[in-house]
Amino acid sequence: MPESDCPLPTFMTGPVKRSMMIAGHPTSISLEPLFWEALREAAEAEGVPLNALVARIDADRVEARDPPNLASALRVWLFARERAGRG
Hints:
By secondary structure, the protein is an alpha+beta fold. It has a single domain, classed as Ribbon-helix-helix fold. It has helices spanning 33-46, 50-62, 70-83; strands spanning 16-22, 25-31. Helix 1 (33-46) crosses helix 2. The protein is globular, with a radius of gyration of 15 Å.
């Protein structure tokens, strides 16, 4: 199979935009599939819907002195969770 026909591993694919309701407001978030899967697994592990987990992370994010954008906050939260051994 030519190299150009080989599918990229999930961690190398571009962002996927998804829409969801957070705190009663619609929003769109663009994340790579790897991060969407990690968020889904985290929500499942915590026993909450995905949008509830994202809303909680968003609420923490807006409390920051210089809040990052939501996609960045989600990635950082997932990284910190993994480093803490809860991944």
